[in-house]
Amino acid sequence: MHSHYLRAGKNKLILLVVIFLSGLSACDSDGTRSLPEAATDTTAPTIVRITPDSEEISYGVDLNPTVLFSEKMNIDSLLDNRVGIYSGSFDPDSITEPVEREINISHSTVPGESKVPDEESGKLIDVDATELTLGLSSGRFALHNTYTLQVESDVHDLVEDDLSTSEDERNFLEGGERVAFTTESGVWHESETLNFKYLNEEGTQAVFHQGDSFEPIIQSSQSGTTLLVWKQSVEGVTQIWASQYLADQEVWVLPGTESASRHCRKNPDSLDSSCVNSLRLDSAGLGSVYSPEIAINELGHAVVIWIQPRSPDAQLTAWVNMFDGNAWSGPRDLLSGSSVDGEVRNTSFSLSDSGGVVGGFIQQSSAGVQRVRLLSFNFITGFNGLGFGAPIYIDTVSGADVLGDAQDLELSLSSSGLGVVVWSQEVSGFDRVRARRFNVSSDATLSSDETQFVDVVGAETHFAVQPKPSISDNGDLYVAWRQSSGGRYDLMLNRNASGEWEDAKKIEYDDSASVSEFTLAHNNLNELFVAWSMLFDDGVNSLTVRSYHPGSGFSTAEDIPVTGSGSERPVTSPLLNFDYEGNGVLSWVQNTSFHPKIKTRQYSKLSKVWLSESTIVQETSGAEVLTLRQNALLRDGRILSVWGLSDVTGASLGSALFKEYLPPIE
């Protein structure tokens, strides 16, 4: 069997052919062998069998599709982008366009299922045939998705074209073949407490963390890198620690580790030094850290930003530690060369696929006002300690406007480098939502529009707070926020589709309740989904989802039934995520005294409905509160959720994995 790697649009082919020659002793008197004249093959090849072969059943995500031909085939013709796997269906009624996926493909020669008559004896004899085995380069298919295996008609058998004739003697497949199939759905597996280990001071063995672990943040990329950072309390000082998750082994390792040893996987309580799976990121001896953020790009590079004193008992500044996929740069002061020496209060950073790092932060000005600044630098330059550039103010106002404190800063950056930073700021007595659209190149050159007000000022006292941005794959920018109205909060949205902000719109219309929290995210069809919780006067909570498509506009708001919601089980921390195939998950927390839960509903791209409610963390007697900030969408469609749990014994981290159903071993 010869293995080849096939990337859409590019082929890399390495063939190792071993030929054994034997039995060449029968020769004519002149020493040459008499061979019969070969008959001309004019039979077109056919496809004997394709697996999977049905859309009526669901297939496992570890499936390896196969294609069996009726005879031996020309391998080059098979590998030249003529056999592929597509996400989606070619059915004209399909809601999505098929997208070709990167695949691995191998071939072998097997006894065929066809027989032909021998020219001399007339007996039926076997015909060797080519069989292809395919799979996604990510290792697995995504859960609950339709795929199509396609074989094009211009693949052919071993007969070559005789260039001395006007005809093409090659035998091509008579008509192409397409087979659609659907993968199985997933389930949440039992949750577990995360216990991380670090290397002791002597460097001789692993030690389990003691003290509180809290406020976890997890991020992943389609390249396969998944990193978790969290706060760790050690002797009254809050530190930042990190660990890396290997999806193929479902194990936590020291960041930069390619594979966990069999010993460490089989013995999770082992204190062998090779089983260390966490690393401290912040600067020792400077005091506690605040507000950690993490961003990862498709190269597997990551930046972790946090706030920490520049020196013991000094003012707070922004720090960074950078990961190149193998090693960390070490903690560095982002603003050590800045001319403005005010205290940093809030940060939000991101990283493009080309290596441009850009972020915003709120810093106390010399006038005592909390101002917004923007900073950009190249990842490699920063990693090598060659500087981070100079930040600029982006919150200036003109005319008679009086600038007040900024708050609630958030930044979103697309893989191509298009971004937006949003915040709420007091301007002439009103809390306004402001936005700055920008582009960052790989060398960190930053080009940006002017800062704009994206909210709507009413006649009454105006408070527009907690803005959140999202960017679709087609470059549309969206900002949602809470805005006061008659003693309650509405949910507002604005869109920038061509460099200009539109008029802000109210997207919920229940004036008997107030929006308490919300979340927004895009799927792979450039649809925006917004989910929010509302608090009614009688203490009842509700959860609602609404989507927006650039072509058809807003959908009807859909209420999501929540079991046991109300004043005793308030809905908090709604969180939306979509995987690379377009399936989604809506998560939320229901915190009560000593009985918190995390619940989810999966969104099916195929049926465009929210599926039944699941509880991924069961009620825990004695627990006080659960915190959920992010889920990690693994590159093969699985979902990894990590949360913080507080109880009478302290704070700890928990985790659960959404993946295929595995029947119990009997």
Q: Average pLDDT across residues?
A: 86
Rg measurement, Å: 30 Å
> Which band does the percent of strand residues land in?
over 45%
Number of helices: 3
* Overall SS class: mainly beta
Describe the global form.
Answer: globular
- Largest sheet properties: 6 strands, antiparallel
Q: What separation lies between the terminal Cα atoms?
A: 35 Å
Strand order of the largest sheet: 2-1-8-9-5-3
Please tally the β strands and state the result.
Answer: 50
Helix content: under 10%
Low-confidence spans: pLDDT under 50, at least 5 residues? 1-38
Number of domains: 3
Report on the architecture of this protein.
The chain contains 3 helices and 50 strands. It is an all-beta fold. Strand 29 (403-413) and strand 30 form a beta hairpin. The chain folds into 3 domains: 2-28 and 40-184, Immunoglobulin-like, CATH 2.60.40; 193-223 and 232-280 and 630-666, no CATH class; 283-473 and 492-501, no CATH class. The strands form 11 sheets. It has a 6-stranded antiparallel sheet with strand order 2-1-8-9-5-3, with no helix packed on it. Strands 12, 13, 47, 48, 49 and 50 form a 6-stranded antiparallel sheet that branches. It has a 5-stranded mixed sheet with strand order 4-11-10-6-7, with no helix packed on it. The model is unreliable at 1-38 (pLDDT under 50). The radius of gyration is 30 Å and the shape is globular. 2% of the residues lie in helices and 48% in strands.
SSE blueprint and pairings:
Layout: E1 2-7, E2 10-12, E3 47-51, E4 58-59, E5 66-69, H1 75-79, E6 83-87, E7 99-100, E8 103-117, E9 124-136, E10 146-151, E11 177-183, E12 186-188, E13 192-194, E14 197-199, E15 206-208, E16 213-220, E17 226-234, E18 237-246, E19 251-253, H2 262-266, E20 279-280, E21 290-296, E22 302-309, E23 316-323, E24 332-333, E25 344-351, E26 356-364, E27 370-378, H3 379-383, E28 392-393, E29 403-413, E30 418-427, E31 430-440, E32 446-448, E33 452-453, E34 464-471, E35 477-485, E36 488-496, E37 505-506, E38 513-522, E39 528-536, E40 541-549, E41 553-554, E42 558-559, E43 571-578, E44 584-590, E45 597-604, E46 609-617, E47 623-627, E48 631-633, E49 639-647, E50 650-660
Parallel strand pairs: 4-11
Antiparallel strand pairs: 1-2, 1-8, 3-5, 5-9, 6-7, 6-10, 8-9, 10-11, 12-50, 13-50, 14-15, 16-17, 17-18, 18-19, 18-20, 21-22, 22-23, 23-24, 25-26, 26-27, 27-28, 29-30, 30-31, 31-32, 31-33, 34-35, 35-36, 36-37, 38-39, 39-40, 40-41, 40-42, 43-44, 44-45, 45-46, 47-49, 48-49, 49-50
